[in-house]
Amino acid sequence: MKKKLLLLMTLTAGLSLALISSAGAATYGGSATGAEVTVPATGTTIRAATGSLSISGGGAEAALLVGDIPGSATAGVVSLSAGVMHSAIVGLDATQAETSMADVSLTVSGNQITADFLMARSAASCGPAVTGSSQLTNLVINGQTITVTGAPNQTVALPNGTAIINEQISSIVGTSAELIVNALHVTTTDSITHQQLADVVPDNSSMGHLVYIDHAFDVTVQSTSITFNGTCTFSGTGTGTIGGVSGPVNFTVSVTDNGEPGTADTFEIHVTGAVQYNSSFGPVLLSGGNIQAHNLPCQ
User: Fold this and answer.
1) 186: Cβ contacts below 8 Å, ≥ 6 apart
2) What's the pLDDT score for residue 21?
3) Which residues pair with 59 in a beta bridge?
4) 93-129, pLDDT tens digit by residue?
5) Given Cys at both, which of 31, 114, 157, 211 links 222, Cβ 3.0 to 4.6 Å?
6) Cα angle 233-235-238, degrees, rounded to a multiple of 5
7) How far apart are CA 90 and CA 97, in angstroms?
8) CB atoms within 10 A of CB 288
9) Closest C-alpha among 122, 101, 131 to residue 36
10) Could you report how far apart the first and last alpha carbons of the chain are, in Å?
């Protein structure tokens, strides 16, 4: 039987130090990928891949409002339905990679897997040292709710394979460090495809996207174009929907980064245009995910 692999949230963060004269110079590396599926019969299919980080650092990002992989791309072996998918990697004083996706429904060779939210994070820093983590909310595999321990390499047996949660593969050799983190790595004994989607920003320019859903008021706002003003407030344009009616909108978002793991971070949004909406109760705590501010006064 041929083996098939499916990796959700694949991250590699790498950093090495080389002596130049008497000074230490950092060399960066790594990438972030939302989803990767490999079936020998059809190749490899990738979604939301940043590409490789420049050795001089900087940043790269990839975002999709819909991260689906249809069964037709994998000869019917794998089918992935996913909402917004985002991957990012930044090389400054350390290398940090993060990727996330929402509303995940996955079929892998007869195995049914669902989750409300997935996120993986990886970092490599001077020392050298590495750290990584994964967040999986409401994970259900073949009808069984899985208690995610947070420990690296938690394994769940499948009838025809395995699912590894928070898979971490690290390497520290000399002054170099690397950590690969997969939020969910499914392996079975069958077959999967190849297509590459990536949006790479090789410098330190601003980048980002927004998908916001308020189920209580039937409001959705989404955009892949936002503008930063150098603080922790940003604005943008996009499409809004309320009560089934859609149209163009403008929005302003304010965030705070209150440290790791993100449970104390806050988010606030104000929308004008076709949709009139305000998170009128002020900033709210995140119930999942994380806000990370790099060189911004968001604390």
Assistant:
1) 5, 6, 7, 8, 106, 108, 111, 113, 158, 161, 162, 163, 164
2) 31
3) 90
4) 788 888 888 889 999 888 999 998 888 888 888 878 8
5) 211
6) 150
7) 6
8) 16
9) 101
10) 53
